[in-house]
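Lecture 7 notes: from sequence to structure.
We start with the chain below.
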Amino acid sequence: MAPVIANSVFFVAVVLLGAITPLCFVAVEHGRIFRFLAYAGLQSVFLAYVFCAILYAVRKHSMVVNAVKWTVISIMSLWAAVEVGSIAATGMPVVPSSLALILETDLYEIKGFLAQYFCVKVILVYLATVVVVASGAFLFSKLLLLIARCRVGVCATAVIMLSVLIYGCVHFSSILRMALMDNYADFQLWEGVSPENQHLIRATEMRFSDPVSKMVYLYKSVTLQMADFDRWSESQLEALEVPCASPSGNDFNVVVVIGESFIRAHCSLYGYYLDVNPRLTDELEQGRLVVFSDMLSTANFTTPSIRNMMNLNDISAGEKWYDSVYFPVLLKKAGWNIYWYDNQCADSNFNIGLGSMLYASVNMEHVYDGVSDKMFPLDGEFLDYVHGSLSPREQGGRRAVFYHLWGQHFPYKSRYSGPPHFSASDITVERPWLTDKHRAEIAAYDNATLYNDSILYAIIEHWRERPTVMFYFSDHGEDMWDLCEIKSRNNPAPGDSSWLDRQYRIPFMVWMSDSFMDGYADKAAALRRAASTPGMMDNFGQIVLGLCGIETPFYRPERDMLNHRYVRKERITSEGYHFDAGQKKAAAGK
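Predicted structure tokens for the same chain:
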């Protein structure tokens, strides 16, 4: 007990800072208090004891002791602030999915995230945390000194401490086992993601909530995912060696527009009561637009969504994106010129999570004929740059052009220009929890959607006079106050069928120019027939390959919604959620 008694205030401070994550979680979410606190409490006591033992060993060097104390307290305080802020703002601690969201964040979004992070609720939680840690360190350190004067108390505490040390050794042996893993699949099984348990259970998150465990946990998650990129790059190099061709006559352009955070229930084409898509509605009425009724995204975050959408893996077959082929590789080999125009990700250095794939050396050297190199706060400014400066440099012949837009990405007020068309008074839906502030946020989202409609129309106008088929869809869904008591996309509720529907069922539509419909009537008819077929975005590449008539071993007609040999399978998201089974279960319950 000597190390603890000699550093009593430091010991208690480290214990409290290490356990503050589940303590805050319990205060915010009100659940399973003893289990959460038991995990973190034991780990924090073990960690605090290890630090105190080190300090006791070098106690003759006061400068070293003070330096270590202040360094440890500073680092743990900073980490506690991050964790507490995350829980207060989103209801979740920092986990690997949080890193995915951070990797998708850029300078334009920081203002919005900071506004969410430092709201009144979060500030109050911060103040409460400071009071708990400061007062706890003072009071419990006094209690330890009182115990030190009683032989029985010292002996009892020593026995408890010995038990904690044994637990700590077992716990950190688990961390060591995880640290030595060499593939992400094993890591997912270790953390609790398996066919039986498809999402990170919160008990697991709390079990690794002390700073040391959490840092190792997050670091391993990121490094193993980066290793997946290396495997993916090897797959593309192998695909470049496989024969690929396209029959003559398919001389049309393929345009893919990837939207952002578009809620299907807030789209006029799917029955929303406000006219947020007047231009797309006009194209539909003139017979140029086909609206698909049941398409699912593979994930509710941009990075995993685009990874699985742009590669030819089938999630329901257990295939991984990093072991499959980036389908633009095959389009390029078959004679299409490929252009990637992105307003969210400028290069691999800017956005590690997504840019590592999109701007990988294999794509830059062998696939793309052109890429954008600038980003703009508004998609309209981005289109002016692309169509004014980049499009004139495109080569003639068949083109496959990809636009990745801001769409309706948070914060919504930053996603449109000019005076707002909709206001809080236009939001007439009634919900018990709706306030004027909520209605204003809904109106801002609808204004962003109306602006996005004008962006899509500008792209259509750019391609209208050429034989072109254009796919438009959102990378994932979103939550909004008129649909639910909104929290956050990184607060999963896979047991809730309505949550799955909002997050994963997306707007998906195909626009065709008049010359495309005249010259390729059979392809236009196939697109119209497929509109009511349930689909999944992990097979999007197969749709494009089939439409373009690409002859390659990687094309699987049973996965192509436009092909008569298409086989409908149960749709499973990248997180492992069985979407169709969940919807059937919910329908049966009703």
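Points to note: Residues 497 and 586 are 6 Å apart (CA to CA). The two ends are 60 Å apart (CA to CA).
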